[in-house]
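Before going further, learn to read the protein records used in this course. Taken together, the tokens spell out the fold as the letters spell out the chain. A record is reproduced here so that you can trace the correspondence yourselves:

***
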Amino acid sequence: MTAPPVECIDLVRTFGDVRAVDGVNLVVEEGEIFGFLGPNGAGKSTAVRILVTLLAQTSGVARVAGFDVATQAHEIRRRIGVALQDAAIDPIMTGTELLNLQAVLHGLPTDLARRRGGELLERVGLSAAADRRVGTYSGGMRRRLDLALALVHEPSVLFLDEPTTGLDPTSRQSLWEELRWLNSERGTTVFLTTQYLEEADFLAQRVAIIDGGKIVEEGTPAQLKADVGDPTLFIELGQGADESAVVDVLGSFGTSTPAKRGSVGVRLPGGATKLPAVVRALDDKGLAVAAMNLAQPSLDDVFAKATGRRLEGASADGDDSSPPAKKGRKR
């Protein structure tokens, strides 16, 4: 039986009294994009650093490409590509020079290194900037170059730690398209950490949600959202509205759920068919509200159900933004 690309068994990492990774168990299947979703400080980056052999675990077992991270780090590094949040890219070198250097470090012959570098620069849309110093690149260009650097040696497993944090929507969409193409056309297994709900929903075949170092939910995005069940009604309170009175009224329609400040939320069995009754009930009590939004279950609802609070990266009313439209790919 072929070993899974990534496997963690009771993985723990402590920093003093803090358990940054607290008994994580997961298996990533070959050829999938696996989303590791959670807020800042949840333990995502710590877990990734263990898996890419940059940080030792305190206890437990982790294997990547069938090799143990504690005893076979060299074998793992030959088989993985890594793009971390804080990757250091020399601003003095050009994109071409950096890719050539990366190829040399991985032992690629000169001719192959040049060919691979050119192919990767074209793939990530940086051919026109290939001979520019990286210090002149925008944030989005640097992230795309970082992805190209991670792919020089054609790794079987690609680790991306919050690759689109801070990017504008256009750059984020471009990177998403590259990852989808890489996974579908090359079969590369991708381990993606993110705090963006739409990113995990759009890219990942399966997700694990981590909070406080523990995995609180795991499954396909569709399964996890279906488990939430009913849609959520978010009500933005009007100026001077009595929040407790609104909550009391909504309590007769469904179960309260976390919402942003200035709003209240309720799971609403029956969905839109119940909205007229909610409006009448609020009106009967003389309760003014500023806005109402009925949202279908999202990954943020999954997180809220598991932890009792909303996830960073969710939109203000708890509804995920729609995934970007796919664009034709230039070859």
The chain is about 35% helix and 25% strand. The radius of gyration is 23 Å. The domain at 6-219 is CATH 3.40.50.300 (Rossmann fold).
